[in-house]
Every structure is written in structure tokens, then in C-alpha cells.
Amino acid sequence: MASNIKENYIKALFYLHQKNEEISLSALGEELQVSKPTANDMIKKLKAEGIVVSEKYKPIRITAEGKRQAASVIRKHRLSEMFLAQIMKFGWEEVHEIAEELEHIKTEKLFDRMDDILGFPTTDPHGSPIPDKDGNFNKPDYKRLSQLPVGSVVIIKALRESSADFLQYLNKKSIKLNTKITIEHIERFDGSYTVSYDGISGVVLGKSVCDRLLVKLV
Amino acid sequence: MASNIKENYIKALFYLHQKNEEISLSALGEELQVSKPTANDMIKKLKAEGIVVSEKYKPIRITAEGKRQAASVIRKHRLSEMFLAQIMKFGWEEVHEIAEELEHIKTEKLFDRMDDILGFPTTDPHGSPIPDKDGNFNKPDYKRLSQLPVGSVVIIKALRESSADFLQYLNKKSIKLNTKITIEHIERFDGSYTVSYDGISGVVLGKSVCDRLLVKLV
DNA sequence: TTAATTTGTTAGACTTATCTAACTTTATAT
DNA sequence: ATATAAAGTTAGATAAGTCTAACAAATTAA
Ligand SMILES: [Mn+2]
Ligand SMILES: [Mn+2]
Ligand SMILES: [Mn+2]
Ligand SMILES: [Mn+2]
């Protein structure tokens, strides 16, 4: 059984692999805030366990087994977030921190029961998909709000980034998942959008905000 | 911040101290299934942190600070058990194992929220008291069923031992907390009790069972 | 195509938690 | 009071996870 620490490496490897099939030691060290020799040592252990393939001076690749193990941790994380939000009434800006701890709990039936109580949800409170136990999950092709033209009517479906700061900003603006937004104006100069939602019009969202909102066209 | 492992030592020290003010290294090692040198090393560290007092060849005593830290872990454990049982519908024989993991979660507000959702319970699903954050908890003076005479009418309030095996035995007998029992007969030869409850009479409970049931006289 | 920069590796050290074997001190029993 | 047993300590070793300093390889830029 992998330790908490190993699980965090596996999860990081999975995230990095989603951005780029080939993973660099530097990126891994950066992601986990450890030195390159530390990351290198761990890669040797994970290689011995069949979780990555790696050869001297060559980029690292995660194996099918590695993906399976990563999905298991991510499933625990996202089910926990959903349970904390829906059942325990935590805000979506609070759940990630707690889920970072809960995801390492070994007893599977805790998460199976969460899943059951929640009615087998397919996404977490930030719109990210919850993998099933075999590691499969939907990857719907949402667009960034910042990619869409004036006049588009969209529904917010997920976030590209879910830092507490960003979530608190969205709270302040009363923007939630499934909020229906109409794009009224795009300011060419700075990429900011003027939008309307919930019957309020003229709300200005900066470029970096629109870049983080994943939406579906209505 | 204490690691999981240290927290387990602190909890063990607290349990041992409840049986016997003075704690021996052997008992500590036995409790945690580690060797005496291992326990000894940890005691040196805990002494440096002010959690125990201990001098060479003298028995170990837990400090007020040690008790406070133990109570914090026990509170997390017992609130978790109660949450798992009441809200997540796990059986009382299932909750301990999961709570052994949950008790090490750092984020206090998770447990505060459990407490809130549960309506500030004073005991766990096995009748053990839940300490408050300052480490105070009720220690009601229940009697063992095995100490009471024929004719007594009692209510089961807690268990002296909560192994999954014992709890499954109680499930089979439909005995729960708050079950009202009447003692019909005591067999002198083997100390077994014949009792009635829930309208069923003539149920025989062995000595070891009666020894584990903590009851209040009606 | 050489030089500079980035990336990866090695070597050596530290911390925490664990062990066994051997020894010392304290307690118990004859 | 002495011998035996139990409890506690020391010494030395191991494994996991981390670091820094120094060096080697690969990539990128000039
Ligand atoms: Mn998260
Ligand atoms: Mn999330
Ligand atoms: Mn328990
Ligand atoms: Mn309990």
C-alpha cells in the first residue's frame, strides 16, 4: 500500500501527465515543492513498483497502473469534496483543503458510502469529473468563457482553477456552477467581458476570470 | 504539530493512565505493538515536548498538556464514530476502524461541523463520552451488568469493550444502547445471566458478556 | 558549433520511526 | 539475602523521505 506521500506523488504525476504526456523531474519537484534529487529518488521507487517508466536522462511516463492508482486517490478527493459541500454544507472554497487529507483514508467503504449518499455524482463541487473505480472519467469539452464572442449565452460548468481566492471572488459575484451568462460586450483593450446573469446586467469580469470559467453553449 | 504516530502514542498513554496513574514502558510497547526501545525513544521525545514526565527507571506520567492533546484526538475519534453511525448509517461495529483514520485529520472545523450536525452529542455509538475541546468529559458511574442481582431492571448505557466481534454478537442478540433489561436468573455455577428485554424472555448471556455491559439502574 | 542554460544524477548527510542484541537496574520469590 | 525474573536502557542497524553541493548530460541560444 502506498503511503500518503507516495499517493501525493502519483496524483502529481497524473496531473502533470494530463498537461504533457512526458513528465520532467523539474516539473514534479516544482509541483510538490521538493528538490530534484528528492523527486528523483521517489521516481526510482515508483519505477520499481511499476507506476512509472523512466530511464536515465529520459522523461518520465506514468503507466496504466499509475493512472489507476491516481484515479483512486482523485475519486476519494472529489467524492469527499462533494460530500463536504452537499451533505456537510461547507462552501466550495473550503472543501479542497479538507479533501487533501480525506483522500488518503484507506477504508474504501467510506467513499462508497459517500458516493451512495450523494446519488453517484459525476462531478465535484468545482465541476471536475469524478472517476469511477476503474479510473475512467468523462472529459467533456467545455470552452473557456474567454474564447467566446459577444452575444453568446452559456452555462458555467466547471473551473479551470479552484483556488480559495478565486472561489471567494466568485462568491462575491454570486457566480456558481450552472449560472447562465450572456456576453454583452468584450473590451478589446484588456480582454475583459461585460456580462449579465441572474437578471443583473453590466457585470465586468476580467480576462483572468473569464479564462478560468469553463462553459457550455446554451 | 504531532504526527499521526505521536498522536497514537499520546492516545495510548491516556488510556493506560486511566487504568493506572503510573505507566510502564512495557505496557506502552504492548499497547502499540512496538518494542520497548522504540517506546522508550518516543517517550524521550514526548518528554522534551512536555507531554509526559519521566526519569530513568521511573514510571511515566502524562502531563496536563498530554491529557489535553489526547482528549483532542479522542474527541475527533468519537465524533467521527457518531457521525459515521448516525449520518452515514454505518453499523456500530464498523465505525471504529474508520475513526482510527479520521481522528488524525488536522482540520478542526471538520469535527466542529460534525458536532453541529449531530447536535452536540455527549457519547459515541458505544456509549463512551465525547470530551469537549478542553479535554473535559463526563465519567458517569455505570455498573457492570455482572455486578447486579436478580430482579434488577437496567438500561444499557455503554460498553466496556467494543471489539467488532463483541458488537456483532450484540447485533445478533438485538441488544443496543438503551435496551431495557430485566435480570431473571443468575446461574451461580458459571456466572451466566438469564434476562428479558424487548418482550423476549429467557435469553442467556454469558459472564464475559455481562462483564462488558455497562448499565444504569432504572 | 561552441557557449550558456536547463535538466538530471551522484554523493553524503539528516530526521523520524522502527528493530535486535546485549546489558543494567529494579522488583519478586524463595 | 540471594537468585531469578521483569522492566528499562544502550548501542548499532535499517528504511523512508528529505536536503545541499557538486557534477554530468541534454537542450537552447548565440
Ligand atoms: Mn480539490
Ligand atoms: Mn475540486
Ligand atoms: Mn473507537
Ligand atoms: Mn467508541
TrEMBL record, chains A, B:
<dbReference type="InterPro" id="IPR022687">
    <property type="entry name" value="HTH_DTXR"/>
</dbReference>
<dbReference type="InterPro" id="IPR022689">
    <property type="entry name" value="Iron_dep_repressor"/>
</dbReference>
<dbReference type="Pfam" id="PF04023">
    <property type="entry name" value="FeoA"/>
</dbReference>
<keyword id="KW-0678">Repressor</keyword>
<protein>
    <recommendedName>
        <fullName>Transcriptional regulator MntR</fullName>
    </recommendedName>
</protein>
<keyword id="KW-0963">Cytoplasm</keyword>
<keyword id="KW-0805">Transcription regulation</keyword>
<dbReference type="InterPro" id="IPR050536">
    <property type="entry name" value="DtxR_MntR_Metal-Reg"/>
</dbReference>
<keyword id="KW-0464">Manganese</keyword>
<comment type="function">
    <text>In the presence of manganese, represses expression of mntH and mntS. Up-regulates expression of mntP.</text>
</comment>
<keyword id="KW-0238">DNA-binding</keyword>
<dbReference type="InterPro" id="IPR036421">
    <property type="entry name" value="Fe_dep_repressor_sf"/>
</dbReference>
<comment type="similarity">
    <text>Belongs to the DtxR/MntR family.</text>
</comment>
<feature type="domain" description="HTH dtxR-type">
    <location>
        <begin position="1"/>
        <end position="63"/>
    </location>
</feature>
<dbReference type="InterPro" id="IPR038157">
    <property type="entry name" value="FeoA_core_dom"/>
</dbReference>
<keyword id="KW-0804">Transcription</keyword>
<dbReference type="InterPro" id="IPR007167">
    <property type="entry name" value="Fe-transptr_FeoA-like"/>
</dbReference>
<dbReference type="Pfam" id="PF01325">
    <property type="entry name" value="Fe_dep_repress"/>
</dbReference>
<keyword id="KW-0010">Activator</keyword>
<comment type="subunit">
    <text>Homodimer.</text>
</comment>
<dbReference type="InterPro" id="IPR036388">
    <property type="entry name" value="WH-like_DNA-bd_sf"/>
</dbReference>
<dbReference type="InterPro" id="IPR001367">
    <property type="entry name" value="Fe_dep_repressor"/>
</dbReference>
<dbReference type="InterPro" id="IPR036390">
    <property type="entry name" value="WH_DNA-bd_sf"/>
</dbReference>
<dbReference type="Pfam" id="PF02742">
    <property type="entry name" value="Fe_dep_repr_C"/>
</dbReference>
